Amino acid sequence: MKPWVLGLTGGIGSGKSAVVAEFAKLGVHWVDVDHVARWVVEPGKPALAAIAERFGEGVLTPGGGLDRTVMRELIFQDPAQRKWLEQLLHPLIRQEALAKLALGESAYAIMVSPLLVESGQHRQVDRVLVVDVPEALQVQRAVSRDQTSEAQIRAILSAQASREERLRHADDVLVNDRDLAWLRQEVERLHNFYLTLRGGQE
After folding, report:
1. Distance of CA 176 to the CA centre of its chain
2. 52 annotated ligand binder
């Protein structure tokens, strides 16, 4: 039987990685959409060839990979190009992520995506878990982790879905504002609950 899919999301600095690591220790299969997004544009993949054909060899690194910095600048300047790129990549990412999730041996599998709500991916999962954290703590964590300025982190925050928007789509919310021992307990509690669900619904 194919596992049902739990979408896990949260803003920058909310601790998604720590949460998914705890689920993994309990034997839950998970896939990170960001990893899949990188994989679909690796050298030799059809998507990379299509990108190079459209934008020219300038978007490739000397080693033949995708130069993300160049690509980012190109699509930020031109919404039409960004739309083209999204239309090329989103279906591939979705297909690949779902194929990887289906390999799970656990009762449910987790799709980790920072943009679960913004990208519409929440419509492909059976249930949504939002890792939430007060904004002040979010900024503090992200600044110390990424060694970036508070202004940069706030800019990223304003580009992501607002907390309210994310929480509106949540079936479950894990407020990650305490220590790891507490987080582990919360994940175990959710895990035991998820094992009782059929297809992700109560």
Report:
1. 17
2. no
Q: Can you list the alpha helix ranges (DSSP code H) found in the chain?
A: 16-25, 33-39, 46-55, 68-77, 79-101, 135-146, 150-159, 163-168, 180-194
| Mean per-residue pLDDT, 22-31 | 97
Same structural domain, 146 and 182 = yes
| Residue span of the structural domain in which 185 resides | 1-28+106-202
pLDDT in tens, 128-141: 999 988 777 767 77
Q: Would you say 200 is a known binding-site residue?
A: no
Would the annotation count 18 as a binding residue? yes
Longest dimension (CA), the chain: 52
Is 119 labelled a binding residue?
no
Q: Which two tokens stand for residue 1?
A: 């039987």
- Residue 35: inside a domain, yes or no? no
